[in-house]
Amino acid sequence: MGDHHDDHDDTAYLLKSGRVHLSLEELSNLLRSVQKPTNAPKSGPLGLGGFALTTMTLSIYNAGILTDTSNMVLALALFYGGIAQFIAGLYEYKISNTFGATAFCSYGAFWCSFATYVYFIVPHLPPDKVHEASGLFLFMWLIFTLYMTVAALRVSFLLAALFSVLSVTFVLLVIGDWAELDGAKKAGGVLGMVTAGLAWYGSAASVINTTWDRELLPLGLWVRPKPKYRKENTETVMPLLELTTMSSESDDEDVEKGKDRHRHHHHKERVFLSSVKEAPARKQSGH
């Protein structure tokens, strides 16, 4: 019973003080228990694969290698390059990958909007205005690709190369549409095939390395420095729970002090309650 009372006192003290003291070992176990599983599936191979296959097919058409593949491109753009890649982006949001989520969701939407534009909008445009609308459509995506290229420079060598080539591809395709230059459009198609090849390599490297649990195909990941946190931000990480790492001796000392204060508080309560109970008896005896 005495041990049970001490445990109750310790718990009451900890709850009232609003502070939890953990040793380094306890804190390590706590952090390990909330870590994300390392074997979680990756959506990168799916997103890059959808982007690569659809881009390759359209680029073959733009380069003039084949001239009757537009309908097949629309089917791929809607389902694999569009919907599948968009789903991959949603999973990247779940694992807090801002770059992957933004890239996959955006280019998934690009392919869906491209299929919609070609199938539903182009047939209703005046023939002499199609090149202007197409150039504007591609120019808007060029702006997005340019700042994603800047971000890709911080992720990996592969993505930096992929987005750089993709940016030049968009530039050539925009020039080809607005200036109505077939040569620029064909050059954009050739670079689009290079872009698709890089994306395919990234997809293959990611899925093969993950499956074999070793780096068989390098991706050229940059070494990221450790994040620097300002001291004033440490209190905002867990505002409802303050974790203090201490040695076992300081833990015991602080708990004993808390138990003494808690017992003193309970002693005052017992004295007060006993005086309240004795008051009616004193009144009766006085009468």
Automatic annotation (TrEMBL):
The keyword Membrane applies. Residues 247-287 are annotated as: Disordered. It is a multi-pass membrane protein. Signal peptide: none annotated. Keywords: Membrane, Transmembrane, Transmembrane helix. The chain crosses the membrane at residues 46-66, 72-91, 98-121, 133-150, 157-175, 187-208. GO terms for cellular component: plasma membrane. InterPro entries: AceTr, Gpr1/Fun34/SatP-like. Its main location: membrane. Residues 260-269 have a biased composition (Basic residues). It comes from the Eukaryota. One of its GO terms (molecular function) is acetate transmembrane transporter activity. The keyword Glycoprotein does not apply. NCBIfam families: AceTr_1 (NF038013). Belongs to the acetate uptake transporter (AceTr) (TC 2.A.96) family. PANTHER family: ACCUMULATION OF DYADS PROTEIN 2-RELATED. This is GPR1/FUN34/yaaH family protein.
